Amino acid sequence: MGMNIQETIASPLVWHPQTAAEAWQLKQTYDIEAVYTSGGTLLRTQWESGISAMPQHLIDLSAIRGLNELRVGEAGLVVGGQTSLQSCRSNALLSRHFPMVTEAIRTIAAPSVRQLATIGGNVASSIGDSIAALLGYDAEVIWFDGTREHRALLSEWLHEASAAKRGNERLLLSVLLPFEESLGETPVSNGAEDLTSQMKRFGAYHKVGRREAFTPSVVTACINGVLTCSNVIKQIRIALGGGQTVPVRLEGLEKEISGADVDGQLLRHVYDRTIELFEPREDLFASAAYRKSTAANLIVSELWKAAKDNTKQL
CA–CA separation, 242 vs 295, rounded Å? Predict the structure, then answer.
């Protein structure tokens, strides 16, 4: 059945570039009247809810070669921006090395939507529920500026996009997840004694919403770190987002608690500083204060749990 005249006028013109350079040139040509699209699932919900207007031009990235591959690169696992969320979730390498990313994807929408939605679209939105987990692994992005490819930390890319209010105008090509160093026994010689310091990696991802999936998130939280056998924090990353909030790393807090013992005093400090540093956007679903306290409780709970589990294994 063909579209009537009104539907034809309201429907955007869809372009299918074959290369990143062609896609970029189309965006320069039509500027604010055009948007890059992948599966289009998030854009569709924004149009239907009135959050954003339907553009006159859609630049469909699905025909660009090499962007729907997930492969091992020199610096880590490279996930093409056009890789569907369902493909990411079912990938054995991603599940094994970056389980919090696959857990985050599990909470996004329904399986039928995940078949269409892409990791690139989720990240390029700047508010996708996978982003906190990606930040927890210190992910990077590869993007195209019309002439060459650039590589940057995801945290920096999001900050620049938010500051410039450019959103998804930059052409995201891939997400890069660096492999974590394996942890083992590190002997430490101290005179006549040979002490062994054993470190344990811990991590968790949480999405808090009205339902577990297919609902706007109130808070997304990821914590990823390493504890010594005496519960000293050797490494820590804390990322928070949710709703219309652009996810961020709490790098100031990370620096403050690195090298510290996990005890009651530290947990109180983490709670208070999370409240201070996290600046979520308020909306009809939840106040900023509620999002702050929820995020702080999640991070403190996971730190306490990691220390408790670590002590049990001694």
Answer: 10
Alpha carbon distance 261, 245 (integer Å): 31
pLDDT tens-digit profile of 235-291? 999 999 999 999 999 999 999 999 999 999 999 999 999 999 999 999 888 999 999
Q: Residues near 112 by Cβ (< 8 Å), separated by ≥ 6?
A: none
CA–CA distance, 120 with 168 (Å, rounded to integer): 10
Give the Cα separation of 130 and 89 in Å (integer). 11
3-class state of residue 237 by DSSP: strand
Q: How far apart are CA 127 and CA 125, in angstroms?
A: 5
167: left (phi over 0), alpha (psi -120 to 50) or beta: left
Strand partners, 236: 225
CATH of segment(s) 195-312: 3.30.390.50
**Residue 82, φ and ψ in degrees, nearest 5:** -90, 10
Nearest partner of 79 among 174, 178, 179, judged by Cα: 174
134 contacts: CB under 8 Å, gap ≥ 6:
101, 104, 123, 154, 175, 177
Pick the CATH number of 70-177 from 3.30.450.40, 1.10.3210.10, 3.30.465.10, 1.10.150.130: 3.30.465.10
Token pair in block for residue 258: 């690195």
